User: What shape does this take?
Amino acid sequence: MTALATSVPVHDDVDPAGPRRRPGRRTAWLPTAVLLIGAIYCLLPLAWVAAAASKSGSSLFTTFTFAPGGDLLANFREMSGYGGGVYWKWLLNSLLYAGVGGVLSAFVSGLSGYTLAKFRFPGRGVIFNVLLAGVLVPGVTLAIPQYLLLAEVGMTDTYWAVLLPNILSPYGIYLARIYAAAAVPDTVLEAARTDGASEGRIFGRVALPMMLPGLVTVFLFQFVAVWNNFLLPFVMLSDDDKFPVTVGLFTLLNQGQAAPALYSVVIIGVLISVIPLIALFLLLQRYWRLDLVSGSVKG
Amino acid sequence: MMRKKFGALLAVVLAAGLSAACTSDSGDADQGAQPGGKVELSFWAWAPNIDKTVDAWNAANPDIHVTLSKQAGGGDIVTKLLTAAKAGNPPDLAQVEYQSLPTLVSNDVLADIAEQAAPVKDKFAEGVWQQVTLGTDAVYAIPQDSGPMMFYYRADEFDRLGLTVPKTWDEFAQTARTVRQKAPKKYLTTFSANDPGWFTGLAQQAGASWWGINGETWNVSVNDAATKKVADYWGGLVAEGAIDKQPMYTPAWNKALNDGTLIAWPSAIWAPGVLAGNAAATKGKWAMAPMPQWAAGENKTGSWGGSSTGVTAAGKNKAAAVKFAAWMNADPAATALLIKESSIYPAARDAQSSPLLQEPPAFFANQKDFYTSAKAIAETASGFVWGPNVNVAYDTYKDAFGKAITGRTPFSGAVDTMQTATVADMQKNGFKVAS
Assistant: This one.
């Protein structure tokens, strides 16, 4: 089981060599068309958000769906000023939950994955199998038990309530283990041990840099997961100063049937909340391209 | 639509989690009196800008400090309150819709505040007060706002099409048909399978009584004659195509209100705020009238929405909490802020004649007597006893009426489905239900 899992090559999804054109090969129209349709499918909602964000509340439902309006700045000002600028607070909270949660999660995943891949100890198989089972459990079902557990120790409605459950990611550990098995050769570790380095130093100075591309992937996965997470913070937090963007915008949409939903404020809020994700992907994609080239497997 | 579906899903997830998790009895949350005699209270609410009212209280009462947490409204706050109460740390106070009170009471979330609330009882109309006592001697919340139902229509479109405001439901049906003849692209109004609160208000007007309690035994009659009459009346209009059948509170509905596809809306007192937000293009074109009646010369209406301020059983400072709740909902200074900042139509009698309500809402600037007639209509709202599982009845409403619309089956069948589901759920949860 474990042998099978470790032998899965991860190189495929990270494509170290980059695009290489084979001579005499024509453009493959069908895959291109399928990918284009996929891209349109994903980008159309974003285009809608961008167009709708520039419309005033009344033209939102009366004008052509994708025709932009002229009220982008007015909407922005309204959103910015709403509740004394509470939106920016939510955005900062989201950055905190996703950023700190992502980094901690990547580190914990890296450490656990490396340990599971490179050390033989009793219970290793059991631990890994339990983790694999954990990948199958949707996080949504854990939100309430986690809430009750944290309520037991009086930590609900704190930043920790959202951060702690996000640090341990079974999928991240699984990914890191496979990556460590593939990217960190035993010979390098043995060489380091022969040189007298401590295990902590080997992990920090040798293994971690080699695993970096994999950990960036874990970080991104976790960042996006936390950024988009709704139920956990919705259940954990009651103080609206600690809300992330998702929960905050939800409260603006759902103010009971007696108050209109604040569509324009919410839509521009959504548009702005997408920007950090795009920026993050643009910044971090070079790590994927470098990938194994930057590892010390060359020799 | 999206948000409602999501809300339902959320409720299911939360409920499943609750029943799966073990009970925790650690109720020693840290909301006790602080040294120096200062009391800290936490308050969950969703009304827009209600923080202004809370700020006013805090400025005037340095000994009792209230911290507001804005929450999502309606059913979402109820599921969240149930979860928090289960974990032993609910807030001291919460804004709760009237129909959710029995759910919270039967789960021991809310405290009986009859003693502390006695002084403000007379400030509220009897029908409103009945909603917070659940027909018992106990008092579970202080009424905040009420939602008497009224008939809203596009005065300009009615003029253009030569329509008169329907006084009875027969006339209403006739008007709906006339609209289809004269302007085939328009509908008088729509029947929404997505808004059980709206339908319940219509049924109340016809004299429906869905729940009643006699000692320990509940009487459940969601499918009583009055409700079936209302259901089949609307079902007939939908079947013959005299009215639209799209749900309310969707972008498509907003569009229809904006571009005049829908020219009337049986709604409640708070409708001006919704129309201003969702159909801004129609400002000044609407007018309000009493609801059409089931018999000529009658004068009745139902309620849609409205909420109260509940005090939780787990709170350490119930007396202080009731003091705040009573102030917020009955004190003229507080209700004035609620009217002005949160666009709430107050439940307290005196507040309904507040100087702030002398002027019509900006969206209805042409109707000078808006609030005077609103107050008269509010007096005709019938009382209603809510059962412990309104959420089940409401969810079944959405399913059953949605199916009846797409399957073109009689609406009274959907009402029967509601009755069956409601009774079955109550029996499953250990309530005695008279057969």
